[in-house]
Amino acid sequence: MSLVPPPFDPELAAVLEVVAETLPSTFTIDMVAAARQDMAAARPGPKALEQDGFFEVEDRIVPGPEGAPDISLLIARPAASAGARPVFYHVHAGGMVIGDNRTGVDAVLGWARELDAVVVSVEYRLAPENPYPAAIEDVYAGLVWTAEHAKEIGGDAERIVIAGTSAGGGLTAALALLTRDRKGPQPIGQLLMCPMLDDRNDTVSSHQMAGLGVWDHASNEMGWTALLGDRRGGPNVPAHAAPARAEDLSGLPPAFLDIGSAETFRDETVAYASRIWQAGGVAELHVWPGGFHGYDMMAPQAEVSRATQAARLRWLGRLLGE
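The structure corresponding to this sequence follows.
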């Protein structure tokens, strides 16, 4: 039986037609090198990130995992305020294969402006050159450094929120599991935006959206294979690689999860939120009608995108008691 995909939001569908001219539904491994070059060329510099002097911005090289290279953290703190502020620890998108600590950070800077917070965005080693566990170990090392040096950067180690989009959302969920299991720094919340959670790539939504939208079934298989190689989809994939594999979702920080109804990751995101509730945890889930993968970044002025952005900011404000 063929699977009928849900419709795209009409406003988003018009944008998707334009996006499709440069970003096909299927992203293949042979596109990675060119995509990395394009992203590097468009990488914003400190002046753009400072936002007319609102933020003080620095790149800090800090110790990576034991026996591994150092990692780069982008740190942005409001210039005009003092004291220990909340910290938004950001993990970038990119399907496990592209991106850097500037990718998607503009949205996080927007939260920080509204809520007087410090932003720390971590750069992690990319697959396929660096398979699991390189990325999650880098992300964990960055969180440990951030918690240990929070006061130095104007932050509060007791008010760290971890956040990520797509692959970064999956790594953020994995980070919550890993720091729980290692009894490391304890974030007060996890914000998972269209997260990449399940290497098995076999939900209804992953098949419904094959060849449609952004980051389809084949793209997802490529990204997970780059990270896990022949282990992808097999019986022995650890939860710190693919959080949907976790048997125990108890003891995690409150979660915010959002997803579009017309994208590959819809069903795994809904299932993950349900399993947090089943484990006695706290989660807020939004499924935005007609949203394709990354719609809020590609069509930020669309009505559904504005609603999405507002819901995230409201949740952060409640979490921080603002």
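The mean pLDDT is 96.
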